[in-house]
């Protein structure tokens, strides 16, 4: 099986992405980074998720507890005060590893040179810091799948998507490093990674351990999405990204372009795409332009239907 790390600011949809990654790949570890909610709560959420889905043996590594510049805010209004839609779940028995996430990324890239893929469904701080510590990691990591950026329809500022907005410096470092990268932007997830009321009803009726988990952790996300983003249901960009990494045929259209990130002022965190190669920059990422939402849903439903 393909070998992956999930880099996560674990809350709501991240947990489902971790679940899918554990089914689709050999999950070598989950690395935690500052982002969605309180950092310690993110750690607890990841530990509980792995226990709940029967993957207690997957190690959790603690990474950066702040972006490079430390200028961001958490978004409990999207994910609930504990990042799990306020679900009062049991205290996990599992504990994180002592090895730092950055060191774990570098070590695993050496142990699985040319095979390791990173599912980056969070701010890119850990990956940027790993690169800064050892630039040769670029040659060892096979692929990075990034959920991040927006064409123009930001979900955190009018132009910036949350993951790029939290740590745009890290995003720029990773994009400029030379990794093989595929980006799943916010708008693609909004169209093809959305679940409507009928989908929620279907998941609820599955009534399995995993479908019940989905409902419990995503309730607040659904409420927020329905109220603020014009979709009666929920948007699952992290799960879509993991699904695309697993089954590339979900990508209906993509383009290889040079991608940059704005670091300044009110446009901080904006994804800048050189669509016409105006500056003759070498392309540094494949950008997913269109995805098959039906295939995504089928993968998700099949995974949640398992006991």
From TrEMBL:
<dbReference type="GO" id="GO:0008477">
    <property type="term" value="F:purine nucleosidase activity"/>
</dbReference>
<keyword id="KW-0378">Hydrolase</keyword>
<dbReference type="GO" id="GO:0046872">
    <property type="term" value="F:metal ion binding"/>
</dbReference>
<feature type="binding site">
    <location>
        <position position="238"/>
    </location>
    <ligand>
        <name>Ca(2+)</name>
    </ligand>
</feature>
<keyword id="KW-0479">Metal-binding</keyword>
<dbReference type="InterPro" id="IPR036452">
    <property type="entry name" value="Ribo_hydro-like"/>
</dbReference>
<dbReference type="GO" id="GO:0005829">
    <property type="term" value="C:cytosol"/>
</dbReference>
<feature type="binding site">
    <location>
        <position position="9"/>
    </location>
    <ligand>
        <name>Ca(2+)</name>
    </ligand>
</feature>
<dbReference type="Pfam" id="PF01156">
    <property type="entry name" value="IU_nuc_hydro"/>
</dbReference>
<feature type="binding site">
    <location>
        <position position="121"/>
    </location>
    <ligand>
        <name>Ca(2+)</name>
    </ligand>
</feature>
<feature type="domain" description="Inosine/uridine-preferring nucleoside hydrolase">
    <location>
        <begin position="4"/>
        <end position="297"/>
    </location>
</feature>
<dbReference type="GO" id="GO:0006152">
    <property type="term" value="P:purine nucleoside catabolic process"/>
</dbReference>
<dbReference type="InterPro" id="IPR001910">
    <property type="entry name" value="Inosine/uridine_hydrolase_dom"/>
</dbReference>
<dbReference type="InterPro" id="IPR052775">
    <property type="entry name" value="IUN_hydrolase"/>
</dbReference>
<dbReference type="InterPro" id="IPR015910">
    <property type="entry name" value="I/U_nuclsd_hydro_CS"/>
</dbReference>
<keyword id="KW-0326">Glycosidase</keyword>
<protein>
    <submittedName>
        <fullName>Purine nucleosidase, putative (IunH-2)</fullName>
        <ecNumber>3.2.2.1</ecNumber>
    </submittedName>
</protein>
<feature type="binding site">
    <location>
        <position position="14"/>
    </location>
    <ligand>
        <name>Ca(2+)</name>
    </ligand>
</feature>
<keyword id="KW-0106">Calcium</keyword>
């Amino acid at each position: 099986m393909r070998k992956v790390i999930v880099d996560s600011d674990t809350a709501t949809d991240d947990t489902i992405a971790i679940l899918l990654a554990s089914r689709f790949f050999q999950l070598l570890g989950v690395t935690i980074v500052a982002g969605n909610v309180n950092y310690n709560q993110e750690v607890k959420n990841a530990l509980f998720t792995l226990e709940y889905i029967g993957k207690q043996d997957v190690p959790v590594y603690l990474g950066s507890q702040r972006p490079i510049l430390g200028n961001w805010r958490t978004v409990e209004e999207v994910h609930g005060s504990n990042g799990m839609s306020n679900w009062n779940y049991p205290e996990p028995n599992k504990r994180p590893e002592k090895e730092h996430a950055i060191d774990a990324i570098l070590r695993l890239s050496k142990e699985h040179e040319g095979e390791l893929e990173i599912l980056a469904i969070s701010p890119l701080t850990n990956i940027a810091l790993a690169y800064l510590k050892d630039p040769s990691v670029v040659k060892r990591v096979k692929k990075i799948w990034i959920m991040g950026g927006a064409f123009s329809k930001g979900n955190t500022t009018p132009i910036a998507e949350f993951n790029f907005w939290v740590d745009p410096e890290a995003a720029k470092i990773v994009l400029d490093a030379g990794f093989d990268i595929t980006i799943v932007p916010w708008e693609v997830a909004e169209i093809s990674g959305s679940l409507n009321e009928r989908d929620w009803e279907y998941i609820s009726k599955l009534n399995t351990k995993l479908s019940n988990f989905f409902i419990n952790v995503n309730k607040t996300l659904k409420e927020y999405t329905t109220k603020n983003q014009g979709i009666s249901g929920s948007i699952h960009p992290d799960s879509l990204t993991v699904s695309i990494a697993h089954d590339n045929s979900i990508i209906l259209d993509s383009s290889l372009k040079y991608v940059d990130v704005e670091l300044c002022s009110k446009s901080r965190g904006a994804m800048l795409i050189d669509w016409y190669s105006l500056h003759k920059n070498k392309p540094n990422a494949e950008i997913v332009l269109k995805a098959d939402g039906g295939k995504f849903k089928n993968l998700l439903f099949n995974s949640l239907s398992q006991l």
